[in-house]
Amino acid sequence: MILFTGGGAIANEFCKYFDCKIISIRNMNNDEIESWISKAHTIIHNSALINSTNLHELLSCNFILTKNIVDLCYKINPSIKFINISSMSILNQYENYNSLSLMSSYALSKYFAEVYCINHPLINSISVRFSTIFYNNQEKDGISKLIFDSKKGNEILIYNDGSAKRDIIPIRIAVEYLSKLCHTNFEKKIINIVSGSETSFKDISLILKNNNPLLKIKSEKCTTNDVPSTFSINDITKLGRINFNLESEIVKYFNSIS
Amino acid sequence: MYNIAVTGTGGGVGQSILKSLCNTDYNVIGLDGDQFAAGLYSSKTSYIIPYANNDNYIEALLKICKKEKISLLFPGLDAELMILSLNRELFKSIGTTVVVSDPDVVEISDDKLKTYSKLIEAGVNVPFTEKLKDFNPSEKAFPLIIKQRIGGARSKNVYLVKNMIQWETVINRIGNKDSDYIVMDYIEGDEYTCGSINLDNSCKGVILMKRILRDGDTHKCFTVKNQIIENQVRLILDTIKPFGGCNIQLRLKDNIPYVFEINARCSGTTAARTLSGFNEPKMIADFLLKNIEPSFQIKEQTILRYWKELIVENEKVDEIKNNGFLQNQTPSFL
């Protein structure tokens, strides 16, 4: 059994295509957790607190909880595959760890969790970082919000003429990679799941303009944090790259909005 | 004219594929990581490519396949099979079919313990196989074969152990890498290498060759017909469902075939099979590119192998070293 430790968009999308079970591990005691671990061959640890800036709370939910689960896996089922959903927020522009002093509280909590997992004696543990996921849900990410607003005829707002770039991966592709990872012996302890190509918000707004010629695009000047947008495709090549066309994915979501 | 690329043209499998496609109406492009690979100088066009463990391997191959409008890509090295299998769809998207099986078939073939479990499950006769580190030998267990669990070619790191003294010697040589090795019953008997072509999820043909090995390579081979062996080979192929060429190695003892290895690819004996009327690469290409159903007429004969020299002008070696490719060569049969 493939077990997700928390709900959320990735787990729900995964369940649409692949056999798995979602539990809410945050509210369980160790006996309950051990019981689930003993039934699973793969654990995808996606339970995480995102919407907080409180370091204590973030460390407790994202690091201490992860540590506890990894330790229990090692005790109960040491050959289990443990996939820790990490975060790109811990990286700098060069795909290296960012300086701790520059990390947000959330990034710090995910950093400690990742470092703990990759150094743990649990043999089949791997940390996964996704680039910017395009969720097809206007409440989940900025790209979907832009598409939703453009379909609804609302003015869309971009910053600095949309010069900021992202490596965007549709959620369907993200979970397909995750499924491959569940069924492959990946040799590394960390994998970056990315598209391998940069897309600017200006590119996205032009795609939207093509689909809605009346679309009004407003640009504002703004100081933004640099987000890594160029990643090596070596990891996904070793997993087996999945072809997709971002423009088609955007148009598909645009057309699906009533 | 269709273009077909072959990798690993410095090795026996790649060269066998080149030989089989020579004198056909296919234009063959030779690829290898080593500038001294003989096959690079026997194809009309050839390229130096990164090795399969290089991060740029897939990108480099995609670039060549796109530029040369490659319709089929035949892998010639075991190390390439998994990465190519995992990325088949990328090649498909530029019009290149990689003649490689699904990743799970490649994995079963590559891992001798998985081969053993899969074949036992299918009811195939196999020599008893176990992880070396879990095996405690008694005197009556000998003779045994110790070999690498994953990969391995041309009898490299294969040990025939006939008694406890030899066992200790080999165990000492392997040292702390014992988890990389398996131990297998040694089967006395004639050895056979069995080629097959597998398309549209079914086996389209099988050829059997009894063989005599030298340094792990087929040195002398004899095309034979044997329904018992063929039935066993077909049972395996029906079970694992490979794509393209698949090579099965077995030994025959008391008229019972014991299968000990599967290679989900063409083989170093592919050229000898071609000479016996069973041209695996051409039949695969004809089926995939021209929709021609495979047909063959196997001739029972003896094939003796020998070394042959290939003269290469130094300018050509320099050219491929400097430019990464060679063009407008006269294709020559190796």
Description:
The complex is a heterodimer of chains A (258) and B (334). Chain A folds into two domains: 129 residues, 3-Layer(aba) Sandwich (Rossmann fold); 82 residues, UDP-galactose 4-epimerase, domain 1. Chain A is 41% helix and 17% strand. In chain A, the strands form three sheets. A six-stranded parallel β-sheet of chain A has the order 2-1-3-4-5-9, sandwiched between helices. Chain A is globular and about 60 Å long. The model of chain A has no long low-confidence stretch (mean pLDDT 92). By secondary structure, chain B is of the alpha+beta class. Chain B has three domains: 116 residues, Rossmann fold (3-Layer(aba) Sandwich), CATH 3.40.50.20; 58 residues, 2-Layer Sandwich (Dna Ligase, domain 1); 113 residues, 2-Layer Sandwich (D-amino Acid Aminotransferase, Chain A, domain 1). Chain B contains eleven helices and 17 strands. In chain B, strands 10, 11, 12, 13, 14, 15 and 16 form a seven-stranded antiparallel β-sheet that branches. In chain B, helix 3 runs antiparallel to helix 5 and helix 5 packs across helix 6. The longest helix of chain B has 14 residues. Chain B is globular, with a radius of gyration of 20 Å. Chains A and B meet through helix 8 of A and helix 3 and helix 4 of B.
Task: Explain briefly what this protein structure is.
Chain A is of the alpha/beta class. Chain A has helices at residues 9-17, 30-39, 55-76, 105-118, 142-151, 171-182, 201-211, 234-239, 246-256, and strands at residues 2-4, 21-22, 42-45, 81-85, 125-130, 132-134, 156-159, 165-170, 190-193, 198-200, 217-220.
